[in-house]
Write a structure and sequence with these properties.
It is a single chain. The protein is mostly helical. 51% of the residues lie in helices and 7% in strands. It folds into two domains: 85 residues, HAD superfamily/HAD-like (Rossmann fold, 3-Layer(aba) Sandwich), CATH 3.40.50.1000; 98 residues, Transcription Termination Factor Rho, Rna-binding Domain, Chain A, Domain 1, CATH 1.10.720. It is built from seven helices and three strands. The protein has a three-stranded parallel β-sheet with strand order 1-2-3. Helix 1 runs antiparallel to helix 3 and helix 2 packs antiparallel against helix 4. The radius of gyration is 19 Å and the shape is elongated. The chain starts with 11 loop residues before the first strand and ends with a helix. One of its GO terms (molecular function) is acireductone synthase activity. InterPro entries: Enolase-ppase_E1 (IPR023943), HAD-like_sf (IPR036412). Keywords: Amino-acid biosynthesis, Cytoplasm, Hydrolase, Magnesium, Metal-binding, Methionine biosynthesis, Nucleus. This is Enolase-phosphatase 1.
Length: 207
């Protein structure tokens, strides 16, 4: 296997996850479908837990902000009629999550719930992360050469760490210097592209 040669003056390597370290098929065919297929069961199992209620509260707040959007799915409040019918609220959360995912949204609220669901799945051994065959050898070689390796992705930091901590190659968290995530961005792609380099360099202190 040939590992990409990097000039000696390079101090850091910046990698994305989907399509870079990890096959797109793993993300699209395993990770995301797992959420849609299991979110209702997860909510019913963990509903009384504080972490789950915090996730729901954040999703409810996002739903209120999204009320003006076509197809937006509201989530009943913590008090009032909805509070007396948890199954109704759970179904609303399920519908909201599926609606957001159908639009490929990356809201903080959605990413937080997804991260907690994946954490439970990885801990239970229900899935293992997949990497391209050349990723781990390359990253290890770069680290041995003294380079820093950063992961910068739209996925939450917790989700990124889950992938590297529960992979088919074992726990490889130690090969990554730092994990970063992009905050949910509502502007145009053109504006995002203009901001990207500056934001990344500032966030990683590479400027």
């Amino acid at each position: 296997m040939v590992v990409l040669s990097v000039p000696a003056e390079v101090a850091a390597i910046l990698l994305d996850v989907e399509g870079t370290t990890t096959p797109i098929a793993f993300v699209q065919d395993i990770l995301f479908p797992y959420i849609k297929e299991n979110v209702k069961e997860y909510l019913q199992t963990h509903w009384e837990e504080e972490e789950c209620q915090q996730d729901v509260s954040l999703l409810r707040k996002q739903a209120e902000e999204d009320a003006h959007l076509d197809g937006a799915v509201p989530i009943p409040g913590a008090s009032g009629s909805g509070a007396q019918d948890p199954q109704r609220t759970i179904q609303a959360v399920v519908d909201n999550v599926c609606w957001q995912m159908s639009l490929d949204r990356k809201t903080t609220a959605l990413k937080q719930l997804q991260g907690h669901m994946w954490r439970a799945a990885f801990a239970a051994g229900r899935m293992k992360a997949e990497f391209f065959a050349d990723v781990v050898p390359a990253v290890r070689k770069w680290r041995e050469a003294g380079m820093k390796v950063y992961i910068y992705s739209s996925g939450s930091v917790e989700a990124q760490k889950l992938l590297f901590g529960h992979s088919t190659d074992g726990d490889i968290l130690g090969v990554v210097t730092c994990f970063k995530t992009l905050s949910y961005f509502r502007g145009s792609m053109a504006t995002l592209n203009k901001m990207a380099h500056w934001c990344i360099s500032q966030n990683l202190s590479l400027s």
